[in-house]
Amino acid sequence: MSETIKSEVISRRKALSLMGLAAVLGLAAATTVLTVSDADAQTGTKAGEKAVEKTVERVTGTERRHERREGRHERREGRHERRHERREGRHERREER
Asked: Rounded to an integer, what distance in angstroms lies between the CA atom of residue 88 and that of residue 91?
């Protein structure tokens, strides 16, 4: 019991580095816990919905995106045609002068 206990003073730099290390390890552990999951992906169909699904056709995300793209394409074509007609009309009117 004759040993003396020496308390070492921790500098601010060491204290901050320890706190930073603890924060990084805490975040790494939290993301590991959150990403590991036994859950399956949801498909949108349940056992009770199978009868309803037969009568009402469900639209998937891919089909919705395809429809939106078709609509955008048609609108762009319409704008292109109208712009082309305006330019032709301007050109013809200039030639008449």
From this structure: 5
More confident position, 1 or 85: 85
Q: 0.70 exceeded by the pTM?
A: no
Q: What angle is formed at CA 14 by the lines to CA 10 and CA 19, rounded to 5 degrees? A: 110
Kindly list the domain boundaries of the chain, sorted by start residue.
Answer: 71-97
The Cα angle at residue 80 between residues 97 and 67, in degrees rounded to 5: 165
Cβ neighbours of residue 44 closer than 8 Å, sequence gap 6 or more: 58
3-state SS class at 3: coil
Of the chain, the end-to-end C-alpha distance in Å amounts to 115
